[in-house]
Amino acid sequence: MDKATSQPILNEITQQIKELQAGNASKTGENELALNPDTIEAINGLFLLMAANYGNQYNAAYPTTDRSNIAKRLWAKHLNHYPKNVIMAVADQIVGGETFLPALAKFKEYCDKAYSLFGLPEARSAYIEACRAPKPKSGFNWSHPAIYYAGRATDWFFLSSESERIVFPVFKRNYEILCDRVIKGEELKAPMLKALPDEVSIPLSKKENQKHLADLKKSLGFND
User: How many C-beta neighbours within 10 Å does residue 130 have?
Assistant: First the structure.
């Protein structure tokens, strides 16, 4: 990599370090105390991976131990809300596909799109799949089990009876909770189709359905 190409990257990294150095010592201490131990472990692993993969670029950006430690604290502060599994999966993806040493902003972009690394569609695609899936829901070939469980948690009748404006925020919240569990390593089992599925039970009357929907909306804080 020539000097002209590398300079913008090094300038951005240098600016990030200056921003952190500008903070006073007590504030830095508070930030460090709030860091998740898993995040610290992930950042240490990430920097080892970048040092091994980017060599001269890494050494130019972080020529001393003090510089790398300052950068680690900065990255840990801004990546603290991402699960360890996301940070490490993104690190592996970046070193396998990016020619240049990534800046923090670039790494965060990857983290924001990390659900795809775990086979999880983004929230709106998952919502559309949940809405379009035929009955019995447990027998559908879901692209990921998290979508089924998010739909079930949202309530299938509510999902099919209300507008996207009302339903999608509820579904999205449930789906993101499940996605976080998957990213943290939990395995969601695919739903099993029962010999006598729930869908063949005696259907509710129109009046009963309306009452069920009204009760559900009230529990979710929606007003008519």
Answer: 25
Q: Give yes or no for a contact between 17 and 104, defined as CB atoms under 8 angstroms apart.
A: no
* pLDDT tens digits, 83-120: 888 999 999 999 999 999 999 999 999 998 888 889 99
Residue 136 buriedness (CB in 10 A; 0-12 / 13-18 / 19+): middle
DSSP string, 163-188: -HHHHHHHHHHHHHHHHHHHHTTPPP
Between the CA atoms of 83, 84, 87 and 90, what dihedral angle is there, to the nearest 10 degrees? -90
pTM over cut 0.70:
no
Instruction: Print burial letters for 92-126: b (CB count within 10 Å at least 16), e (below 16).
Output: eebbeeeeebbbbeebeebbeebbebeebbebeeb
Radius of gyration of the chain (CA): 23
**Phi and psi (nearest 5°) for 188?**
-95, 120
Give the integer Cα–Cα distance in Å for 55 and 58: 5
| DSSP H helical ranges for the chain | 3-22, 25-33, 37-54, 56-61, 65-79, 84-97, 104-112, 123-132, 145-154, 156-161, 164-183, 206-219
Residues of the chain with pLDDT under 50: 24-33, 196-197, 200-201
Sequence ranges of the domains in the chain: 3-118, 123-219
